[in-house]
Amino acid sequence: MVHLAAIPHEDEVDDKLVKEVKKIHLQLANDEDCFTTSVYGSRFAAQDLPRHEMPEHEMPKEVAYRMIKDELSLDNNPMLNLASFVTTYMEEEAEKLMAESFSKNFIDYEEYPQSADIQNRCVSMIGRLFHAPVGAEDGGGAVGTSCVGSSEAIMLAVLAMKKRWKKQRIAEGKPADRPNIIMNSAVQVCWEKAARYFEVEEKYVYCTQDRYVIDPEEAVSLVDENTIGICAILGTTYTGEYEDVKAINDLLVEKGLDTPIHVDAASGGFVTPFVIPDLEWDFRLERVVSINVSGHKYGLVYPGVGWVVWRGADFLPQELVFNINYLGADQASFTLNFSKGASQVIGQYYQLIRLGKHGYRAIMSNLTRTANYLSDSLEALGFIIMSKTAGEGLPLVAFRLPPVESDGETEERHYDEFGLAHQLRSRGWVVPAYTMAPNTENLKMLRVVVREDFTRNRCDSLIADIKLSQQVLDKMDKDSIQKHSDFIHRHHTASGKASHNHAKYKKEKHSLQGKTGKTHAIC
């Protein structure tokens, strides 16, 4: 039974002893009470969060958590962010393992030997996946390391190629002051950074209106005595198409050129071995000397972890590797940073042994099927498909609007791919629009990345919203669309609201984007 409770009078509530205790506490407190039964009843809820200067006083942990969590809720939903290749889903057990390792400094091999050994296991598994030579006992086996991501991995690979080329030139008594590297103009921006930071001239093979990957013959024709290497991309950022690494390799062999190839397999390295295992792109090709892959893309780990593997120690000059005694242990180190958490490496190991080859194959097959379905659906809606299907490229769909035909003549559409992207943004989807690489006549495109958590059901929702967005845009005039796009850009995109960029660094003219208007695609 439930008993009845009397409502006491104030005199009964204010016991004398309690009154005196309260009085003492009030006399001792110099600041107003900042604790309450609700976070939103505290004084902090009525104040701005500190933005520029560290506050003088502390706040309760519950309040700090809730205030920051509420602010982060204004971010987009990662599952609706179809711009990024980066993993947005991991199993609860993986998240728990990673959280338990947040406090481990990965570089401290002496204190955390198992974490270090787990990295070595990952390098071995990934190297074998790429058909790397084995047999470290005689110095002939492959070597590799974990990185913060593919950007660091690419920086290390470029350094290794440059140093190896420079050593050879000096040994031959030749000048070594003008190194160059050959790559597709559709490369990710980290390649431009690597060339700029390490003073290597960029030699570009430009895309065309109907070719979005490197031309093997043109690439090899650009090779000269100062070429440190050729970059081949296993899944370009824009269309996901695989570049023909074997054709480049065979041409180099045919011409007797010893130019090394580095394969940027940031996205495709964990897709191709399971979807089209017979494709030759890796260490099966004799001119391929190094490969990078992102664990935080189709390796299915939260950001940021990447991997780089060299064919053998001969391709990683000893001068770049530091043998150091740190925190009680001798270790060989080749990184751009030093201290880092162990959690991402442990997350990678979890995925490799939890899923195995069968699990990865099942996931990548499903992603490929979903990408094929989306591609077919968009083609049925009249879009021009720019990406490959049936496993010939990454599980993504790149597409553009068809030209408007009227009385046998092509007319200008009153909205473009950016207008459609902005309309989809108002529906919650982040579907990026890009201006393609140089020499494609300012070709515009949209791109949808199919990740592990992009199910067939969610794909149907996206298709329905694309149809709806087109219908809305078709009924709007050009001025209304422009006003709507400006509003979305100003109020719904971070770039439109950004105020942190220093004026000095805006509108740079040294990159491909600054020179040509190419949009650097999101990875």
From TrEMBL:
Signal peptide: none
Annotated GO biological process: L-glutamate catabolic process
PANTHER family assigned: GLUTAMATE DECARBOXYLASE
Entry's family note: Belongs to the group II decarboxylase family.
Protein name, as recorded: Glutamate decarboxylase
A Pfam family reported for this protein in Swiss-Prot or TrEMBL: Pyridoxal_deC
Record keywords: Decarboxylase, Lyase, Pyridoxal phosphate
Annotated spans, Disordered: 492-523
Gene3D superfamilies reported for this sequence: 3.90.1150.160, 4.10.280.50, Type I PLP-dependent aspartate aminotransferase-like (Major domain)
Known cofactor(s): pyridoxal 5'-phosphate
EC number, as in UniProt: 4.1.1.15
N6-(pyridoxal phosphate)lysine, modified sites: K297
NCBIfam families xrefs: Glu-decarb-GAD
InterPro entries in UniProt: Glutamate_decarboxylase, PyrdxlP-dep_de-COase, PyrdxlP-dep_Trfase, PyrdxlP-dep_Trfase_major
Basic residues bias locations: 492-509
Catalytic activity: L-glutamate + H(+) = 4-aminobutanoate + CO2
Gene Ontology molecular-function annotations: glutamate decarboxylase activity; pyridoxal phosphate binding
GO cellular component, one term: cytosol
